[in-house]
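$ run holo --ligand "copper (II) ion" --emit tokens
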Amino acid sequence: MNAHILHTLRYLPLAALVLILGACSSQELGSDADAAQQVYVAPGEYDEFYGFMSGGYSGQLSVYGIPSGRHIYTVPVFSQLATNGYGYNEETKAMLETSYGFVPWGDAHHPELSQTDGVPDGRYIFINENNTPRVAKIDLNSFQTTEIIEIPNSGGNHASPFVTQNTEYISAATRFSVPMGDDGERDVAIDSYAENFQGTLSFIKMQDDGSMRLDFQILVPGFDYDLSHAGKGPSHGWSFFTSYNSEQAHTLLEVNASRNDKDYIAAVNWAKAAEYAAQGEGEMVPADYVRNYIDSDHIAKTERYNEVRVLDPTELPGMIYYLPTPKSPHGVDVSPDGELIVAGGKLSTVIPVHSFSKMIEAIENEDYEGEEQGIPVLRYDATLAGEVQNPGLGPLHTEFDGRGNAYTTAFISSEVVKWSLETFEVLDRIDTYYSPGHLMIPGGDSRKPWGKYLVALNKITKDRYLPTGPELFHSAQLIDISGDKMRLLLDFPTEGEPHYAQAIPADLIMDDDMVRFYPLEDNQNPHAITSEDQARVERDGNEVHVYMTTIRTHFAPDNIEGIKMGDTVYFHVTNLEQDWDVPHGFTVRGANTSELLIMPGETRTLVWTPDRVGVAPFYCTDFCSALHQEMQGYIRVSPAGSDVPISFGTGE
Amino acid sequence: MKKQNRIIMGIAALLLAGVFVFPIWSIKLDAPQYPEGIGLNIRVNTIEGKSPQDLQNINGLNHYIGMQEIHPDSIPELKIMPPVFAAFIITGLVIALWGKRRWVAVWLALFVLLALVGLADFWLWEYDYGHNLDPDAAIKVPGMTYQPPLIGTKQLLNMRTTSMPHIGFFLAMCSMGLAALAWWRER
Ligand SMILES: [Cu+2]
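-- output --
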């Protein structure tokens, strides 16, 4: 406590100076004209990096250009997005299916690029959903979400998704421990937490065809699990998970989970666990969860599973060792050489750094200080490489520049602190605006950081932009880390909560594989038609199927009659365009979902149940050409039982 | 004819096979909204986009101004040209073997005639596409025609249209030159 007060005193002179000078000048808020030049990307030029920022409570993934800070795209993942109909149209609804039913919102936190040999490779980006535990995979040649897998036996998927060196596995850990098992075992008093609540660490295996399967879960004590990173190089085969609430409190955690001087980092030998799983060890436990995926036909499908392999470390030794770590550790980050394991002790006054080689030695010597619910606890001093003194208040997350330096965010003191991986001495610090959570250096959690920029992802934005009422976008701050001193270049607002981010050099994604349109001849949607002369309307009982095409600048058909009250109308719309960046939209008056946005060469279906007699207009929602406004049509709805025959046409 | 000149004549005939491999003519369109470029290659038996989807996209653009769609299947020239070129290759080889100087001249003269007729036909084809517009077109610019140039560059609305001979054409020129050389050396 005293240390906190002493540390805060450091800021008093600055505070006094600000008071004397009155309102802050822009100079004090950071950056200058020279910095502006460094982030200026002239019209027609490309940014150097793709930056992927989670949307937090928006459930999406936002794509930014770095260094310009321009928001260039939003990939819908765990939430419906009216912009392109994701989660609304018939082809993508199944992506949001879970064992809890259709869940159209999620809380997305940690984007994580796929890696080859410990280096981001630009094939996929994964992102977790906390509330309804899920992990998604986004293909980076199309920037589309193509797979979402649910995590059973999880109370909240926060420590997720972290990839191993060659994307062999994607790990996920439960934030909240929960009672597991059948109905009878789950219906327990909350204050029986210590006996009945358990945590799980899940390992999703990447299949050869690029799809994801939940391979196994490891049962762990009922703590809260926070973050993770996989080892690399010498520590490849291991993953590290932070935990807090080793007190096993279940109420008022701010007090009750902050009592212990140390919590744990769980060092998990996943290679060993995978071996156990392959040998059929552990137990198949009932668990309902789904996997949703989109493959070559562009139609989402849901697969249901009802059991999962669970490995118990008290029965299968050698999988987990605890590294005692002060105090309520949050982030856990592995240095590029794979040797140092850095904890963000969010209530700690130092940054503890463990050594992987010392850890292995301690395991070999059984240098334990005890055990925790059957899991060996290694001696703190036996694994410690060093402690960073005076690292700022509330150190959370660390990334690396690949030149022997680490950068840690200090949430409470609103700064980024740079320190040496050799001497553990603080080398530099820079204020952020305000309260940074994660920070990101392109490749900064990999074996090969592109250590030129750092982005601080701040929780508070007040006074940085024109005010927008009580709610303000969060802010990201771009900091130049190429020199000895960090330099603030730019801050830019970000949508939702940019919880964590990853970035990769643009040319690793912007290659010939990038999808610009879908060849019509490859369209496998069963409702696709490939030319206007196949356009038609078919009645099937109370269902009417409209097979429609779009092209600049008309629909075929654009006049439809013979629909009756009580019908359900399916508009199967195929975009015949074969040109980059020419989607067409489709909507009809009174539609209860969203528009369709149909990419060139693709087919999408909108379901419409007319609720009144009359002639309803439909039109293209995406400004597609000079005659976009003329791109419209009518559909006539007659009373139930009337004898208007089905008819349709264009251009009569 | 001397052996050497007969070889030259043989090469002249064989060079013509190049038109079955390379496009003869190319039309390139530049517009601000097509930064990656868009264009057509005219081959001996078909017209195709420089990128696979270009033909469809050009047809799409042309419909604004009422230009006819280009359907290679319905252009008779593209049916006639392959056998004509095949005939020139075969007769050229026969003449090379046979070695009668006068027939080299006949072959060359017919070939030059074919080239001239071809160019004239191409110009007429361009004229038809550029002038024979749908009266119901969405965009009508008074007095505007959309005939691309035979050779060179012309601005057509927002499109900078460049029409140029392609490799196949130059191979045909070389073939002509070699036949002329064989004939001249045989004096
Ligand atoms: Cu449109």
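-- notes --
Residues 101-131 of chain B form the longest helix (31 residues).
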